[in-house]
Amino acid sequence: MMLNSLRKPAGFIRRYLGIAGICSLYHPLAVLADGMFTDMAAPYESCGYCHEYDGNPSMEKYPKLGGQKQAYIIKQLQDYRDGKRDGKGMMDTASTLLSDQDIQTVAEFFSRQKPGVTAAEPSAGNFPQARELWEHGSKERMIVACTLCHTAADPEIPYLSGQHAEYLAEQLRAFKQKARTNDVATIMQFLAERLSDQEIVQLSQFIATGAQQ
Q: Which of 103, 123, 100, 119 is nearest to 111 (CA)?
């Protein structure tokens, strides 16, 4: 009985200090908010500080998770935790606070949320070249159409339509520069290195419009 009473405060302190330290780097006031990542809170509640509780953050540097495939979220969290994807400190540390069951719970929760629509995203009509890459790719440059995989049922390939442009561009650059290497069969690295910097920006902005659905 005495041992159990000591274990819970120890778990509380370890997890509180972990997430509080992370949040203070990005959201200084978040450390004072209710619902910290504690043994008494659901694991997805802490994710809400950056990703919002419905999985649709307004800040473009944080990806939208609402309605994303459960298996994809699981893989990314596991890859962060296992050092297979660079979380730039934030996700690296946060993922180590998650057990396998926590990861399942987080992924299931966000996969059940509705995808958000950001009114400020640009018009799809402004990016005809990006639409061509999305729908048809480029046979000459061995670029397959984005839609071939990203509208398919494969559980570990993410939905992209409506995702934040800033986040998409950052990930494409990471694949192109081999800074991100946790893609399936290195396909995204192969494709991204064939895109120009301008194409990465335009393709990201086009996908963000959500006009592909």
A: 103
Q: What is the pLDDT of residues 79-134, one digit of tens each?
A: 999 999 999 989 999 999 999 999 999 999 999 999 987 554 556 667 899 999 99
Write down the pTM of the prediction: 0.80
In tens, the pLDDT along 102-115 reads 999 999 999 999 99
Could you count the other beta carbons within 10 Å of the beta carbon of residue 78? Answer: 17
d(CA 43, CA 114): 19
Architecture of domain 124-208: Orthogonal Bundle (1.10)
Superfamily of structural domain 2-111: Cytochrome c-like domain (1.10.760.10)
Instruction: Domain ranges for the chain, please list them.
Output: 2-111, 124-208
Other beta carbons within 10 Å of 82: 11
Q: Where are the beta strands (DSSP E) in 7-77?
A: none
Residue type at 125 in one-letter notation = G
